[in-house]
Amino acid sequence: MENLLDTLQQCLNDVARLNAMQDPPSTPFVSKYSARRLLIDIKNGFLPLLSPDEQETEAAVWETRWSNNIHSPSNPSISSQQARLALGKIHHAVGTNYIDTEEPSLGERHLARAVDIFKSSNTAENVACLCELQDCYNQLGLLWSNRDESDKGLQYLTEAASLYINRSQKSEPLPLRSEQLYTVTCFYLAQAYSNLQCSEQSAYYCAVTLKRQLDNDTVDRKEWAVNCAGLAQLHLSSKSFAQALYLFSAALAVLPSNCEEQMATIHRQLGQYYLSVLKTSVEVQSGLASSSICTLAIERVIFPSLSIAWTEVTFANAFEQARELFKKGNSWFQKAVKYFILEGFVTEHISILQDQSLLYKYLIYFELDEGRQFSMHKRRIELLSPLLKELSPFAYVATFRDIAFEIAEIYHELLDIKLADRLKRAAQPLTSKDVQRINQYGWSGLEALELFLRTFEKGGKPPVEVEDELLQWYLTARFNRARIYSKLLDPEPQGRVKFLRNTMDEYRFIRDYADSHSAQISRTEVMPEELKICREMVDLIPVKMNHILNGTL
Q1: What is the pTM of this model?
Q2: Which of 7, 101, 363, 479 has its CA 20 to 30 A from that of 339?
C-alpha cells in the first residue's frame, strides 16, 4: 500500500502540473480533462478496501458500478480509514476539477462527498486533511453564493471559519496553506454577508481579509488597494467618516503608481468623501442629522505596517470650515477628471462634474453674502451647461434629464436671488433693463426644463402616462415651470397676465394628470402637498388675473 499512496501523491503532483498549464482558447480545458482522467483511474486502487456499503456510496457519486476485476492491492497493511482519506483527497481534486471546467453540479457532488469523508475521520488523521476540508468548504460556500443562495453558502463558509479557529487554538502550528485558505474564507464571508445586506458582518470580514493579505509579502497590491477602497466606500455610506478616510489613505499608500485608472478612481472617491462630509455638515446645521451618526458598529480597522495617522472628522459649522472641505474635495475631483475625460469615460466624467456642482451647492449654505452665492451658482452652470451640448438626449437619456433638471434648479436659485435683490429696491421704478436682467435667469431655467420635458414626449406631445419611478421627477418639473412663470416680471398688466396664464396651464396639467391617473397617484403617493396647491391655484389664478386687468392689483 505504500506504493499506492506514493502513486496517489505522484498523481496529485501531476494534476497540479496539468492545472497550471495554459491551454489554447479553442480547447481551454484539455489539460484539466487529462488531469481528471488520472484521478478517475487511480481511485480504483482504493475501492476494494472499503466496506460494501461505502462502495455503494462511492458508486452513486461516480455514477458507475464496480467491475468484479478490481482487485485488492497486494499490501494488506492499508486500513479502510486510510483508503477513505485517500478517496477524500481524490474527491476534493475531482470536485475542484469540475468547478474549474465550469461543471458546478458535478463539482458540488464530489466536494460534498469529500466533506463527508473528512468529517467522519478521526481527529488525528483529519489534521492531515485540514487544508482539503477548508478548501471544500470554501468552494461549496462560493458555489452556493453564486447561485443566489447566500444563506446556504454562508453555512459552508461558517464551517470553514470554525474549523480554522478551532485548529488554531491548539498547540501545533497550522500549515501556511491553511492560513491562506482562511484568508479566502474571510473574503468569501465578506461577499456572502454583503449579498445578505449584513453590512457590519461584511465590513468585519473584509477588514480581516485586508489585514491578513497585507501581512503576506505576495499580496497583489493593486487588488488589495481596490478592495480597501471598496471597504472605505462601505464606511462612507454608513457615515463612518474617520474610518473611511483612513482606508482611502491606506489604499493610496499601497496602490502601485502605474495603476492610473485605479488611482483616478480613488481620487474621485476621496472627492466624494469630502462632498459627503460637507453635505452632512449642512444636515447637522439644519437639524436634519446628528453630529454622531455613524451607522456601522464595528471595531476600528488599523494597518500598523502602513504608519497612517488616524484623523477624526469635525463637521463644518461656519463658512471657513466648509470652504476647507470644499477645497479638499474639489482638488481630488480635479485630479480625477484629468484621467476620466469625456471621450472614453462619459459616465465618470459627468458624475465628477455633477459632484463638483454639489460641492458648490453645499458650500453656498454657509455663505451669507448673496453676491458670492450668485457667483457660486454661476460656477455650477459653467460646469454643467456644456454637457447638454455634448450629450445625446437619446443615447444618455437619464443623464441628460438629470443635468437639465439640475441646471433648471440652479437658474431658479439665481432668479430668486435677483428677485430678493429687487425687493430691497422696491421703491425704485421697475425699468425694462431690470426686467431683462432678472427674467433672463427665469427664461434660462424654463429652457432647461423644456429640454428635460421634451425627453418624455411621444410624437411631440406630452406622454399619456409616465412610468411610476419617473412620475415624481416629471411632475416636479412641471410644478417648477409653473413657479418660474409666476415669478417673471413685466411692467405691463397684459404681460403679467400672460405669465400667470402659463402658470395656470402648468398647474392645470398636473391636476388633470392626477385626476385621470388616480390609481397611479394613489399607488405612488407622489407630491401630495403640491397637488393640493395645484388645485387651489387653478381656482385662484383667474381671480388674480382679473384683478390685474382691472387695475386693482
Answers
A1: 0.81
A2: 363
Instruction: Write the DSSP symbol of residue 458.
Output: B
Phi/psi-derived region of residue 292, left when phi > 0, alpha when psi is between -120 and 50, beta in every other case: beta
Please give the C-alpha separations between residue 388 and each of 89, 357, 381, 382, 383, in angstroms, as whole numbers: 62, 15, 11, 11, 11
User: Virtual CA dihedral for 149, 151, 152, 154, nearest 10 degrees?
Assistant: 120
Among 31, 36, 34, 33, residue whose Cα is nearest residue 21? 31
Pair 254, 210: CB distance under 8 Å: no
DSSP 318-345: SHHHHHHHHHHHHHHHHHHHHHS-TTT-
Amino acid in the structure at residue 50: L
Tell me: the pLDDT tens digits for 346-365? 999 999 999 999 999 999 99
130/160 Cα distance (integer angstroms): 10
**Which residues, including other chains, have CB under 8 Å from residue 103's CB and lie 6 or more apart?**
none
> Are the CB atoms for 490 and 462 separated by under 8 Å?
no
Sequence-distant contacts of 151-157: CB under 8 A, at least 24 apart:
151/196, 153/188, 153/192, 154/189, 154/192, 154/193, 154/196, 157/185, 157/188, 157/189, 157/192
Residue 181 CA to residue 510 CA, distance in Å, equals: 61
Separation between Cα atoms, residue 371 and residue 368, nearest integer Å: 9
Q: Is the pLDDT of residue 127 over 70?
A: no
* pLDDT for 68 beyond 50: no
- In angstroms, what is the C-alpha Rg of the chain? 34
Residue 197 neighbours by CB under 8 Å, 6+ apart: none
The string of pLDDT tens digits covering residues 399-445 is: 999 999 999 999 999 999 999 999 888 888 888 898 999 999 999 99
- Bridge partners of 458, per DSSP, are 461
* Residue tagged 440652479 (cell numbers): 410
> What is Dmax (Cα atoms) for the chain?
118
Residue 1 binned pLDDT confidence (cut-offs 50, 70, 90): very low
Q: Does 222 or 81 have the greater pLDDT score?
A: 222
> What's 57-112 look like in SS3?
HHHHHHCCCCCCCCCCCCCCCCCHHHHHHHHHHHHHHHHHHHHHCCCHHHHHHHHH
Cell numbers 500500500 label which residue? 1
Cell of 440: 433672463
Q: How many CB atoms lie within 10 A of CB 485?
A: 20
Can you read off the three cell numbers belonging to residue 119? Answer: 468529517
In DSSP terms, which residues pair with 461 in a beta bridge? 458
Does residue 373 contact residue 364 with C-beta atoms inside 8 Å? yes
Q: What percent of the chain has pLDDT over 70?
A: 95
pLDDT in tens, 472-525: 999 999 999 999 999 999 989 999 999 999 999 999 999 999 999 999 999 999
Q: CB 296: neighbour CB atoms within 10 A? A: 18
